[in-house]
Design a protein that fits this description.
Layout: H1 7-14, H2 18-27, H3 35-38, E1 43-54, E2 57-64, E3 69-76, H4 81-93, E4 97-103, H5 107-113, E5 119-121, H6 123-134, H7 141-151, H8 158-172, E6 179-181, E7 187-189, H9 192-204, H10 222-237, H11 241-244, H12 249-255
Parallel strand pairs: 1-4, 4-5
Antiparallel strand pairs: 1-2, 2-3, 6-7
């Protein structure tokens, strides 16, 4: 799995035929305990995110970036507040001390997780939201100005960013309430995407700079995104039935290649 070998390569390397190698795979019993149950508990910063294989079939992961280790994961149909909080509670019950949590989530989820620790909203995902609404090269002056404000997110502190956002609002805030009335009836906001961009920044502002007050806390979920990307890559490589039909394949990858646990 980790070396990306084919059955033919393994057969040549170990002098065994294909059926014997497949028999070893079928008989192998992987570790069923999660890493958080095997590693001595200690204070950590946590990153939480979910990925989906298809609609209604996902996995939520709890990762410690400084250890480069996924502590816990389980399957979900969709993301709920409970899917986040129940995992954190399992870690706490096992003796882990959570110093901070970084997620890309809704305000309701963030507020629920604040019960356990300070929460950081992923700055990378916030910038992605702005790009999705305003595009990479917005044409209107107001959109360009807000994009410039957003681009400072990783370079300034909360106070400075708030001042920049407030200043933008004094110049262009009237655009956010402007309406377009339709001939068939009803209305919509004339600058709906600009409005959504601004409201997203304003809504998430209390959680965008938490990491500055907690040294060592990650400001993005990139460490976990990389782990998910690696899993997707290996699943594509081993897309034959003998691998993808085994339920333990994602767990093997998420558990890590060379982690030695001390009991």
């Amino acid at each position: 799995m980790w070396g990306k070998q084919t059955l033919e390569q393994l057969s040549n390397k170990y002098g065994l035929d294909h059926k014997t190698i497949q028999k070893y795979f079928r008989e192998r019993r992987p570790e069923t305990r999660f890493p958080y149950q095997l590693i001595p508990p200690h204070p950590v910063f946590l990153i939480i995110d979910a990925y989906y294989r298809k609609r209604g079939d996902g996995t939520i992961l709890f990762r410690v970036p400084e250890m480069q280790q996924n502590l816990l994961w389980y399957d979900i149909k969709y993301e709920t507040i409970l899917s986040y909080t129940s995992g954190v509670q399992r870690l706490v019950d096992a003796g882990w001390v959570i110093k901070g949590i970084t997620i890309d989530g809704r305000p309701g989820t963030i507020r629920a997780l604040e019960y356990f620790a300070p929460v950081q909203h992923c700055q990378f995902h916030q910038l992605q939201i702005i790009t999705r609404y305003l595009t990479r090269r917005p044409k209107e002056e107001s959109n360009q100005a807000l994009k410039r404000v957003a681009s400072t997110l990783t370079k300034v502190n909360r106070e400075t960013f708030t001042e920049l956002l407030d200043y933008w609002f004094t110049q262009y805030g009237d655009l956010l309430t402007k309406r377009t009335y339709h001939p068939a009836g009803g209305w919509s906001y004339t600058h709906a995407k600009l409005r959504s961009s601004y409201r997203s920044l304003r809504r998430n502002l209390p959680y965008l700079f938490t990491h500055l007050y907690h040294p060592g806390m990650p400001n993005t979920t990139n460490s976990l995104d990389g782990s998910i990307s690696h899993l997707r890559t290996l699943q594509r490589i081993h897309r034959g039935k003998s691998f993808t039909q085994q339920d333990n394949f994602p767990g093997e990858v998420l558990r890590g290649k060379s982690t030695n646990f001390s009991l």
